[in-house]
Design brief:
This protein is mostly helical. The chain has a single domain, classed as Ferritin, CATH 1.20.1260.10. Helix 2 runs parallel beside helix 4 and helix 2 packs antiparallel against helix 5. It is globular and about 50 Å long.
Amino acid sequence: MNQSIGNCWGNRERNSHQQAHLAQLRAVIAASTIMPLSQAERDDLSLMREEEKIARDVYLRLYDRWRIPPFGNISGSEQVHMDGILALLERHGLPDPVQGLGIGLFHDQEMQALHDRLLAQGLRSLEDAIQVGLLIEELDIADLRAAAARTDKPEVLAIYADLEQGSRNHLRAFYRWMQKLNTNYVPTHLMPGDFKSIAMSEHEMCH
């Protein structure tokens, strides 16, 4: 099974590319043999669904405020990530932790507090907004890697790998804006060398 499905699209026909990408994710999941998940695997899927919602919701608000391409483009990608995790939850008969919740709303109080803190920081200045983007993406990468280490299910590993590839590209996009604004960022969830290696490497193209 291909564990790096591709997670990019051009500016033109962005929505159709996103839908095609989501269809790929769903096809991988639909083709999988259902095997029972451990409690850790179930918890990880729920966490990643909420984390992807935080990213989408914060980026939507920051795009409204700052109107720069990364927030507009990446919020669409985060919707695909959310939908990919939802497809896994549905495939395994698990509840959706954010079902019916609007933008910026979470049942989990820790997730609500994290969203609110990140949004408040990002609304202060464009420089702060880029810092928030970098923080969200490195947190996603770290948590996806940790979750991948706790599962052996091929379809779960495939989706996690796809989401991590997307997060690496997102981190690169925000890093370029950080350089443009002549600011600095200190990673807190990835080792500095790992963070720099991702940030300075080439954009990963679609497969």
